[in-house]
Amino acid sequence: MKDKATKMMHILSAKQFDRPFLESICELTDVIRRLDKTRDGLRYLKGLLSHQRAMLYFTQPSTRTFLSFQSACHILGVASSEIRDSSTSSERKGESINDSLRTFSSYVDLIIMRTPVPGLCDEIAKLLDDTPRPVPIINAGSGPDEHPTQALLDIYTLARSFRKNGGIDGKTVLMVGDLKRGRTIRSLARLLALYKDVKMIFSSPKDFSISDDLRKHLTEKGVRFEESTEFREHLKSADAIYMTRVQDEYDIAGEQKPVNYENYHLTYDCLDIIKPEAVIMHPMPRRKEIDPRIDDDRRAKYWRQERNGMWTRVALITKVLGADKNIILPEL
Ligand code: NCD
Questions:
Q1: In this structure, what DSSP letter does residue 65 have?
Q2: Is 184 in the active site?
Q3: CATH for 14-147+309-325?
Q4: Among 46, 53, 64, 275, which one carries the catalytic annotation?
């Protein structure tokens, strides 16, 4: 994962993770959560990276990812600065994104970026690697393309939810919604493919099915998967149900056909159909994909997912900045 020449660990794509990495992130996240239980533990975490600074460059809307990364920085004592609107930076004066990001790298030790432009994080990582002061890049969402850190927190949530139930191996995961432009499922599907015997069911309106590159990848890896325009009929067999919203920010004016999305909503009566041990997930924000009355059901994990996001990002930052080896288990 580290680039040999620079020793920089960028987090750019779910493609770069292997199963040992996922397992070590999950273990580290558990240790960090235990440290969070005591004042001493928290103080210890806060001192771990207090000599480091991070820039959050988020030029696409974000609530959870931004706040959880910012909170993760605070937990580790990393001082954070932010740009959330490129019109307030010199990009407004005609500066290129590349020059702007190179400028940030002069002031910080880590750049966490969300952008509507697919592939931009990779480009910036490459650019910085060739400068005298390269800093790691974490992709916090790159257009409809990738969302590797969401996939990590989703894997952590699934692994914890299935801890007493055989883990993720062998499970059936139903992914629902705008699977064409939803970057969360694109990244998550790649990680699920690293587990044994997982079956994925992709349920979406015809025009929102998974893209060819993902289909090809899953086929090449010999992953069991099924694509369907039906939703309710798959609920019975699913161990995890991952709902997503329509990503209409990527609609091209005049080209979008009206889609009846209602058939892909998890309504209250679905609770009677799904398995008693199933988990219901959503990267959030939701619209009407999940009836809010479902929130109180013990199978609903989407609020927990949000908090898990903060802890997995704490773990990830320690890995990226090389502090993970220092983290020790608290005395029992
Ligand atoms: C997702 C995203 O931005 O891709 N949200 C998130 O990061 N938690 C999902 C979405 O916006 O639909």
A1: H
A2: no
A3: 3.40.50.1370
A4: 64
pTM of the model: 0.95
Q: Do residues 59 and 86 touch, judged by C-beta distance below 8 A? A: yes
Tokens 């929102």 found at: 208
Nearest to 211 by CA among 181, 176, 231: 181
3-state secondary structure at position 254: coil
Catalytic residue among 29, 59, 65, 318: 65
Ligand 1: distance of its center to the CA of 324 in Å?
Answer: 27
pLDDT, tens digit (0-9, with 9 covering 90-100), for 245-303: 999 898 887 777 778 889 999 999 999 999 999 999 999 999 999 999 999 999 999 99
**Residue spans of beta strands (DSSP E) within the chain:** 53-58, 79-83, 110-115, 137-142, 172-176, 199-203, 224-228, 240-243, 279-281
Q: Would the CATH topology of 14-147+309-325 be identical to that of 148-307?
A: yes
Query: Quick one: CATH architecture of 148-307?
Result: 3-Layer(aba) Sandwich (3.40)
Instruction: Label residues 208-233 b or e (16+ Cβ within 10 Å = b).
Output: bbbeeebeebbeeeebebeeeeebee
Task: With cut-offs at 50, 70 and 90, classify the pLDDT of residue 5.
Answer: very low
Domain boundaries, the chain: 14-147+309-325, 148-307
Ligand 1 contact, 144 CB (< 6 A): no
The answer to whether 266 touches 241, Cβ cutoff 8 Å, is yes
